Amino acid sequence: MPMLHDPSKKRHLLILDTINSIRKFFSLKTTTCYILCLFIVMFTQSTNASSTCLYIASYHQGYEWNDGIARGVDNVLAGKCKVDKYFMDTKRNKGEAYYKKSALEARAYIEKTKPDIVIVSDDNASKYLVMPFYKDAALPFVFCGINWTVEPYGYPYKNATGMIEVAPIRPLLKEINNVLTSTSSGIYLSADVLTEHKDYERYRKIYEREGITLKGVFVKSMAEWKKEFIAAQSTNIDFIILNNNSGINDWSEQQGRDTAQEYSTVFSVTNYDWMMPYTMFAMTKLPEEQGEWAAAVALDILDGATPDSIPIVANRRWNIFVNTQLLDKADIKLPPHLIHKAIKTGM
Question: CATH second-level architecture of 7-166+286-317?
Answer without folding.
Answer: 3-Layer(aba) Sandwich (3.40)
